[in-house]
């Protein structure tokens, strides 16, 4: 603000008036203490994409391989890591990609309430498509043994379902991973019982949503490309769990990778493609709403968050 002799004069006059007429004290608004609903809407051509926050999961920095001194840039032993899902309205179908991790920690489980806050209803979801079957992506499918999305068919990659359904894989899995097999069985049960689980390999899963295999993190880990009217959004699932660590240094893997070497190879391939094609990307664990671009900075990659916008 430019302060002039004139504005100073009026300021002084205002002060004099206030003391003459004794204006009432300013009201103090009570603190509200709640976060805003976590959803973020944008259009991709004629499709509407609503990104839904499920909350966050604390991830230990020691879960990541690589130079531990670089991990200290995060400033803590654990980092709050977003868990996001996507609701796609193609006009014909309402598709939810990933269901969040309700029940895993108290800081998760908000995806359903955010879906409602975004103006939709749980029984409007026609299809739930899963990037993979880790608990932070499939746990929101059921609550108390009941299907949270009562009218939905669940679609998952054939290789993913086969891996986690195998008694042989369960038997040879490390002790810490066995619970994951049981969790998946529990979460899929109401849908399986109703004959509402379908598998896919690659290509169009539903009109306007194309599956692209991205194995390594899990055997059937899948990305989805939304394409409409020349606009594109790549939903990359778990290509990176921490943007600050794994995008500049894609060779860092996380302890949850089923095949770490393949996960690294896939991450490098996807980063190269995203940077070359200047693709808009969105990830389950990029800080909510988790939409951005991959750029090349010198010889490395960087993540640039997309500014607030209503379209790609
Ligand atoms: Zn995940």
UniProtKB/TrEMBL annotation:
Leader peptide range in chain numbering: 1-27
Keyword Metal-binding belongs to the record: yes
Keyword flag Plastid: no
Coiled coil: none
Pfam families documented for this protein: Lactamase_B
Superkingdom of this protein's organism: Bacteria
Metallo-beta-lactamase domain mapped to chain residues: 82-285
SUPFAM superfamilies recorded: Metallo-hydrolase/oxidoreductase (SSF56281)
Keywords, sorted A to Z: Hydrolase, Metal-binding, Signal, Zinc
Gene3D superfamilies linked: Ribonuclease Z/Hydroxyacylglutathione hydrolase-like (3.60.15.10)
InterPro entries: MBL_superfamily_lactonases, Metallo-B-lactamas, RibonucZ/Hydroxyglut_hydro
Family the entry assigns: Belongs to the metallo-beta-lactamase superfamily.
PANTHER family linked: QUORUM-QUENCHING LACTONASE YTNP-RELATED, QUORUM-QUENCHING LACTONASE YTNP-RELATED-RELATED
Protein name in the entry: MBL fold metallo-hydrolase
